[in-house]
User: Which sequence fits this backbone?
């Protein structure tokens, strides 16, 4: 007989509720992580036991701990789970029991768990993104010191090559000298790290046929191709491009009442990384592909530039969907053409 376990996962400990096939509580207990109690408990479970855990920030280590023994672990979508089973009183015991009961009734709104190689690629890409953010912060700190001291750098960008050389030797008070030297060393170190991880990403993208396929679209390079692929995962899990756009949070919210339907702002639910990279790439697509450029100007004229870029990002994702499904490279339309290749470019 199958058993069902709900785990309310925390950083240092977890609460576990185990039910039988009739929904009766067989066990409820708190397990600590440092002593290995949770791992030992899960290792003793029968292989057919079904487990549900909420998709919190530390779910991955638990999944990798048991994915070979319990590959059908269900990762519960936090927002949708709360919508199904909202409670005025929330405790670890209640949350774990609710997850177990939803799992037994097959009502857990499951989140997608990508294969390990895709998860590893995501970690590399997000590591690079974090380094770039840190470098931007350091550049802003340097610009702030330049502003405080009233220095005039040789170039407009305070962190350009010539400006960095100037800032390394310019005469300023010791308190500013200390900060400038430290920030410049940090900037150089971060730039070196970004170059190294970028080489790893480029090598990985060159060995991935799907990444090479996506790079035929204007603006998509090694980093963005791998990021798009790692966020989408298996393209077959999306029945059509609209579902993919919804997953990226690029679909409009829908308000329907009394027989009337109104489209609102973007839902912004789903993969924030996929939504971010497509909006960033939209500028390159507008400049390089006539079909995206005409779409942008048509929408921007009526709704503004930001809405125009989002419209292009959505059209790009629909095109990417068709490219991956049909294994076709991107082919821009001839200038002035009014035709479209069905399924590849949808406005």
Assistant:
């Amino acid at each position: 007989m199958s058993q069902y376990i709900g785990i309310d996962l925390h950083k240092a400990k977890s609460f576990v509720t185990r039910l039988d096939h009739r929904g009766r509580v067989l066990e409820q207990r708190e397990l600590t992580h440092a002593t290995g109690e949770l791992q030992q408990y899960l290792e003793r479970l029968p292989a057919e036991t079904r487990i549900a855990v909420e998709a919190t920030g530390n779910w991955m280590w638990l999944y990798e701990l048991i994915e070979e023994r319990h590959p059908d672990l269900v990762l519960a979508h936090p927002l949708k789970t709360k919508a199904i089973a909202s409670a005025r009183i929330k405790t670890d015991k209640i949350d774990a029991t609710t997850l177990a009961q939803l799992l037994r009734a097959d009502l857990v709104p499951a989140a997608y768990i990508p294969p390990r190689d895709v998860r590893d690629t995501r970690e590399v890409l997000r590591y690079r993104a974090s380094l770039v953010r840190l470098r931007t912060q350091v550049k802003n700190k340097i610009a702030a010191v330049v502003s405080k001291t009233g220095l005039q750098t040789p170039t407009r960008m305070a962190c350009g090559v010539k400006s960095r050389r100037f800032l390394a030797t310019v005469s300023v008070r010791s308190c500013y000298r200390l900060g400038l030297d430290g920030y410049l060393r940090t900037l150089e170190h971060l730039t070196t790290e970004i170059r190294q991880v970028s080489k790893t990403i480029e090598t990985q993208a060159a060995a991935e046929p799907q990444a090479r396929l996506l790079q035929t679209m204007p603006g998509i390079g090694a980093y963005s191709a791998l990021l798009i692929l790692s966020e989408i995962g298996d393209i077959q899990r999306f029945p059509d491009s609209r579902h993919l756009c919804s997953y990226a949070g690029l679909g409009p919210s829908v308000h329907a009442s009394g027989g009337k339907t109104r489209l609102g702002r973007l839902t912004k639910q789903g993969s924030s990384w996929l939504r971010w990279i497509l909006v960033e790439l939209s500028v390159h697509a507008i400049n390089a592909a006539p079909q995206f450029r005409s779409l942008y100007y048509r929408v921007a004229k009526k709704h503004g530039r930001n809405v125009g870029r989002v419209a292009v990002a959505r059209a790009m994702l629909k095109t990417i969907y068709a490219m991956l499904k049909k294994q076709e490279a991107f082919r821009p339309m001839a200038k002035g053409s009014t035709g479209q290749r069905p399924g590849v470019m949808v406005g």
